[in-house]
Write a structure and sequence with these properties.
heterodimer; A: alpha/beta; two-stranded antiparallel sheet; 16 strands; about 30% strand; B: alpha/beta; two-stranded antiparallel ribbon; about 25% helix
Chain lengths: ~325, ~300
């Protein structure tokens, strides 16, 4: 896969966290939300699409797919992530799909994703079909298709980073790590620009990782360091790299930044460690960007996923 | 030709067991899987033929051999008190084939060799077959873990030094018997990082080592240890300047134990010059603590 990395200075965008009302076919200066469903594998799957103001289908726009955490849904992510405002400002289409029972079955092998033994959900298949459907229904710039996942949605995003490595131009995960079983589906995957955002005090995905053996089966979350090294290796970077403090005065938390050495210019891996933060969405956290100007970390995530272009789809 | 050499070796082993003690420094061999496999044996002066002795199998790291490992870790003097036989085998390739791979650069049947070696040594010496232990460093520790998972409670205890389990080894350790296990790792070990590693090897195969937060629940989980019963302590000692983060769990299945010795600010090396608390309540070196753990009778003494 070939990507063009456009190294822009992060512009100072002011992230407005004002609430956005979700409803079918609402439109106006803030853009439009469309609720839709599609049938997949016996399930009626729902999702929300955000169309930025002025979208009329005449121009191909970037697409971001946002994957909610366990217990959440697309509407909740659209309302509280802050991405809708950024999408409005950057003329981006965003899809917020819903997991069945508010959960993503992130492993690509359906047999281990069963809800209640007899109720398998193929979320890899659903999200692949969703991408196809969005491309068919809207004027999507297929060289700019990104994914952002939080927590359980971050696990799902990592599976898709590996399975759809030829279609995604970038992926970001927040409050999520690689897992031992998920790693198996990544063997031989091509580089994809990747960002990791984690709180150092995350108890759901601890900094040192975890491992439990249940009935002879290992369930293990990677440590934050392993997660970074895994994605670095996948992208062809060195496993060591630079570490820097990118905190900004007045931010709710300090932030450390890690960048593995010798990543391909078009496929870097970034990690932001929010020092002292738990398993939470990183609101009111500022990082240095550009000429030491502070920007919201969410803007940093958004700008990261925007700058990479998947040339293979052109 | 091969047959006659094998017979000669066998003959020597059978009729001259006591003479072996005089052969420290010269390798013995067994033929396994069509290959002559060297190993070094240390027999303490306190060993008495006819009195079952503990057996310690010591497995070297990559790119070295049994004799160099024997010199480097210097645990032979400790065998005098316990009367233990120590065996230092050589891997066939530059490292141990702990995954028992049948493709790739290293396809040696190291697992079969070590099983055959234990049998051979048990024939040549009076071995207490309830007190056979294995200790290894780095790649040798992974081989030791593989052997522990393969042989279950035929192995009395396992000590992994300068290593933590790899994800690829996990599948070999499903549903295995509990075996008392000690893990010794420096917090600055760059080969087996404290927080683990995750990458792909040259053949694009996933290679990942456990961080301590994964290794401890995994290894103690194999022994069904109750996590609530783990006792943690930070040890400082007059022997060495390093601090040691220790964790002990004796609430495990079949009277097994799990011990972690995390040596603070220590690199990927055998822990020389590190002081710890011994079972007897006195101060000692990390090598002494490892030695104690390798012996059933000492290990079962209360802390």
């Amino acid at each position: 896969m070939f990507r063009k990395g456009i190294f822009v200075t992060l512009t100072l965008l002011i992230l407005m966290m004002g609430s956005v009302t979700i409803g079918a076919q609402e439109s106006g200066d803030e853009g439009e939300f469309v609720t839709a469903t599609l049938s997949h594998d016996g399930f009626e799957r729902s999702y929300i699409v955000y169309l930025p103001p002025g979208y009329d289908g005449s121009t191909a726009l970037p697409l971001v797919i946002g994957l909610h955490g366990a217990g959440g849904d697309g509407a909740q992510m659209a309302n509280s992530s802050g991405f809708t405002t950024l999408a409005m400002q950057t003329n981006t289409i965003v899809a917020y799909p819903d997991g069945v029972e508010n959960f993503w079955r992130y492993l690509s092998q359906p047999q281990v994703n069963d809800i209640a033994n007899d109720n398998p959900v193929d979320d890899v298949g659903f999200l692949t079909l969703l991408l196809d459907t969005l491309v068919a229904d809207y004027n999507v710039d297929e060289s700019h298709v990104s994914m952002i996942g939080y927590s359980n949605g971050g696990l799902m995003a990592q599976t898709l980073r590996c399975v759809l490595d030829d279609r995604l131009s970038s992926v970001a995960i927040v409050g999520s790590v690689m897992t031992y079983r998920l790693a198996q589906s990544c063997l031989g995957a091509e580089p994809v620009p990747f960002m990791i955002v984690l709180g150092t005090e995350d108890r759901s995905f601890p900094q040192g990782g975890s491992a439990t053996v249940d009935s002879g089966v290992l369930y293990s979350q990677f440590s934050h360091a392993q997660t970074l090294r895994f994605h670095a290796t996948l992208n062809g970077c060195d496993t060591d790299g630079a570490v820097g403090d990118v905190g900004v005065e007045g931010s709710r938390f300090e932030v450390a930044f890690q960048l593995p050495n010798n990543c391909p210019q078009d496929s870097p891996v970034y990690m932001y460690s929010v020092i002292g933060a738990g398993h939470e969405w990183p609101t009111q956290v500022a990082i240095q960007a550009g000429e030491n100007l502070g920007v919201n970390l969410l803007v940093g995530i958004w700008e990261f996923i925007r700058v990479f272009e998947n040339v293979a789809t052109e | 030709m091969r047959f006659s050499r094998f017979s000669f070796g066998l003959l020597l082993l059978l009729i001259l067991p006591l003479a072996l003690s005089a052969q420290d420094g010269a390798p013995l061999t067994i033929t396994h899987d069509g290959t002559e496999r060297p190993y070094y044996v240390h027999v303490p002066e306190t060993y008495e033929d006819g009195t079952p002795a503990p057996l310690v199998l010591a497995l070297h790291p990559s790119q070295t051999g049994g004799n160099l490992f024997q010199d480097a870790i210097n645990i032979d003097p400790l065998a005098e008190e316990t009367g233990s036989i120590i065996v230092y085998p050589n891997s066939q390739a530059e490292s141990w084939n702990y995954l028992n791979s049948s493709d790739g650069d290293n396809v040696a049947d190291d697992l079969g060799f070590l099983v055959a070696l234990i049998d051979q040594v048990s024939q040549d010496f009076s071995i207490d077959d309830s007190d056979i232990s294995v200790v290894g460093f780095a790649n040798g520790a992974l081989m030791a873990l593989r052997l522990r998972c393969e042989l279950g409670n035929q192995i009395d205890s396992l000590v992994m030094v300068g290593a933590s389990p790899t994800f690829s080894l996990v599948n070999a350790c499903v549903g295995v018997d509990p075996v008392s296990t000690m893990m010794v790792l420096g917090t600055l070990d760059d080969t087996f990082p404290w927080n683990g590693s995750a990458e792909f090897d040259e053949q694009d195969r996933f290679y990942s080592t456990f961080g301590v937060n994964q290794a401890v629940p995994f290894l103690s989980g194999l022994n069904d240890c109750n996590p609530e019963s783990a006792i943690g302590a930070e040890i400082t000692s007059s022997i060495g300047s390093n601090r040691v983060l220790a964790q002990l769990n004796q609430d495990c299945a079949e009277d097994t134990q799990f011990v972690l010795l995390g040596v603070v600010d220590f690199p990927h090396r055998w822990p020389v010059g590190i002081g710890v608390q011994l079972r007897t309540g006195t101060e000692g070196t990390a090598s002494q603590a490892i030695w104690e753990f390798l012996h059933r009778e000492i290990r079962s003494q209360s802390q």
